[in-house]
Amino acid sequence: MALTDAQLTDHGLEPIGAGRILLIACGALAREILDLKQANGWDHMDLTCLPAKYHLFPDKITEAVRDAVAKHRGNYDTIFVVYADCGTGGLLKAACQELGVEMVAGPHCYSFFEGNETFAAQSESEITTFYLTDFLVRQFDAFIIKPMGLDRHPELRDMYFGNYEKLVYQAQTDDPALTRKAQAAAGRLGLAFERRFTGYGDLQKTLGRL
């Protein structure tokens, strides 16, 4: 069955049971990780993903990661968590330390796609910037418009986004259709648009060391 964004959003992804390292990741990163695995021949890694919708409910992430580690730990030599802090306020990092598993460094995926050092260096000058990744461009309505109620009350747009100036599309891939969709998203939010090709950033470097 083909992997769909709807499946990744609501259900995540089950591991296939092959490899000595299990990656526990956000469903929003599934395609990127699978692409990296294929491109680099990382057959020693398996992947399971929690539902991408936890992006909207970060209080669910830490306990879900705990449950996933407990569920799969006996089947793999190593578990690596492919979440940054992602709005957990340090709780995920503390849980990973307690469980004895490593995780991706950084505050969120926007940072590690850009490169954590680069993102930190420019963060003060981009405080009025709103970021989208490939996944969030594809799922713009489901993750931005509908949760904020802008489909029902478009007049609320300026209340939510009035302090933003620019939408930066962090492109993991070269896809003209996604770029057009990201530019249209910027227009819907009343923001200037910038496409910034990041590739896989620190995600690729981190997984490459495993």
Describe this structure in words.
The protein has helices at residues 5-10, 30-40, 61-72, 91-99, 109-114, 116-122, 134-138, 140-145, 157-161, 176-189, 201-208, and strands spanning 21-26, 45-50, 78-82, 102-103, 129-132, 166-171, 192-197. It is α/β, with parallel strands linked by helices. The strands form 2 sheets. A 4-stranded parallel β-sheet has the order 2-1-3-4, with helices on both faces. It has a 3-stranded parallel β-sheet with strand order 5-6-7. It is globular and about 50 Å long.
Number of DSSP helical runs: 11
Query: How much strand?
Result: 15-25%
How are the strands ordered across the major sheet?
2-1-3-4
Low-pLDDT runs of 5+ residues are none
Q: What is the C-alpha radius of gyration, as a whole number of Å?
A: 17 Å
| Sheet/helix structural class | alpha/beta
Biggest sheet descriptor:
4 strands, parallel
End-to-end separation in angstroms reads 28 Å
Task: Give the integer mean of the pLDDT values.
Answer: 96
Shape: globular
What sequence of helices (H) and strands (E) makes up the elements?
Answer: HEHEHEHEHHEHHHEHEH
Q: What proportion of the residues is helical, as a percent range?
A: 40-55%
Number of strands: 7
